[in-house]
Every structure is written in C-alpha cells, then in structure tokens.
Design goal:
alpha/beta, Rossmann fold, 6 helices
C-alpha cells in the first residue's frame, strides 16, 4: 500500500495497532504530550511529504483533549506537505448537539449551539480532506461538511453477534429505548425478519428520564435493546425495567 501513513492519536492506541496489523503497515511515529499548562503538543516523527495520511482518533474519554489533539495532528500533517489527510473518528464528538431543541413550558427555540456543526468546521479548517466515522447519531451531520464523509455502519456485526449468541433470536423482538432510534431498530428487525417495538420517553432535563411508555408487544419474547450512544446508561436501564 504505497504512500499511506497511518497515525494513532492517544484515544485508542490498541484499535490503531489492530488496523495497522490488518493492513500490514507500521504505525507512523508521532509523540503527543502536554505542557505544564495543559496545552497539547504533537510532534510528527517522520516525513509525510506527498503521503496519504490517516489519523485514527475517537471522540470519547477525555473528549476535549482528544478533539484538540486530532485537530493539531491534522494541521501538523497538512503543513508538512502531505497530499491528503483522512481523519478516522469512530465516535464523532458532540454528535448529540446536532440541532436546536425546543425548551421550556412554552415551546420556543432555545439559544443552544449546534456544536456538531462547529466541530465539522474545526476539522475542515484544520485541514482534513476526508472524514471516516461510524453510526452517526444523526445522519444529517454528514451535510455539515463540504468534504467527503463516510458514515460506516456496525449493523452487519450486530446481526452476526445476535445470530451467534442468542439461541432464541428467531423469537426475539428488537426494541428502541427512544422514538428517535425507530429507523435503527426497524432496519435490524427487517434483516432478522422479526418484529420491533419502541419506548417513548420524556425528559425533565438532560440525563434524567421522567416517563417511559412502551409501544409494542414484548410478552414472552427475548427483547433486544438497541441504542447508539450510552452516557449514564439510565435510558437503557429504565427501558429494560419497562
């Protein structure tokens, strides 16, 4: 694979090493550290002139540090004359902040930011030419970019896991813990040729579910709950109880 250089950020070095092993490549030399004032420092340890650079860095864990490190790595490669920089971001940071929500007792548009769009702008300005991500929380985030975005799906792996690990999968029902995931569960249910259900939830505030209503019949079936993001896991636990 000529002209390809693969770098790993500090979010998931093990994943990057597995990708490199699968491709038969050595991970590129890069040193990331922090100054005493917590500024992020990145040093690219080899020439990337004219190379096709891939940087693997996920938006979870220390999310702000990881995002800033990714931006600096992209920019470092770009100004070192790489031909193209692709950011591989399995978990896209700030993906839940993809629109303005209605807030308050009287419905009105909030003054909340659309932070996913801000992150898209930051990646583009840093110099990214291509984004590869997985299972975006909202597919419209692809439209926030003016560069190519590949949104990969974990669904084939999920289907394989269900068939191999759940004995009664033919009598299961796929359940979405919220109405927003209806499209996700119907796709899986169709591929397995089983039924689906969903739970409508109402929130008083972020990370706190007020009320849940089950829509569908799960009696005497194996219920498989499918969601795309788990923060406190409160929604999944409430849905399982319901």
């Amino acid at each position: 694979m000529p002209n390809i250089v693969l770098f790993s950020g500090s979010s998931h070095h093990d994943l990057s090493q597995r990708v490199a092993d699968r491709l038969g490549l050595e991970l590129g030399k890069v040193v990331t550290k922090k100054f005493s004032n917590q500024e992020t420092s990145v040093e690219i340890g080899e020439s990337v002139r004219g190379e096709d650079v891939y940087i693997i860095q996920s938006g979870c864990g220390e999310i702000n540090d990881n995002l800033m490190e990714l931006l600096i790595m992209i920019n470092a490669c770009k100004i070192a004359s790489s031909s193209r920089v692709t950011a591989v971001i399995p978990c896209f940071p700030y993906a839940r902040q993809d629109k303005k929500d209605k807030k308050g007792s009287v419905e009105r548009w909030s003054r909340a930011p659309i932070s996913a769009k801000l992150v898209a702008n930051m990646l583009s300005v840093a110099g990214a030419d291509h984004i590869i991500t997985m299972d975006l929380h909202a597919s419209q985030i692809q439209g926030f970019f003016d560069i190519p975005v590949d949104n990969l799906y974990a669904e084939p792996a999920v289907l394989q896991w269900i068939k191999e690990n759940i004995l009664e999968w033919k009598n299961c029902i796929i359940v979405s813990p919220d109405a927003g995931g209806a499209k996700r569960v119907t796709s899986i249910a169709d591929r397995l040729n089983v039924e689906f259900a969903l739970i409508h939830k109402e929130r008083k505030k972020a990370n706190e579910v007020d009320r849940m209503v089950l829509v569908g019949d799960v009696k005497d079936r194996v219920a498989i709950l499918v969601d795309d993001m788990a923060d406190t896991c409160g929604t999944i636990c409430h849905a399982a109880d319901k």
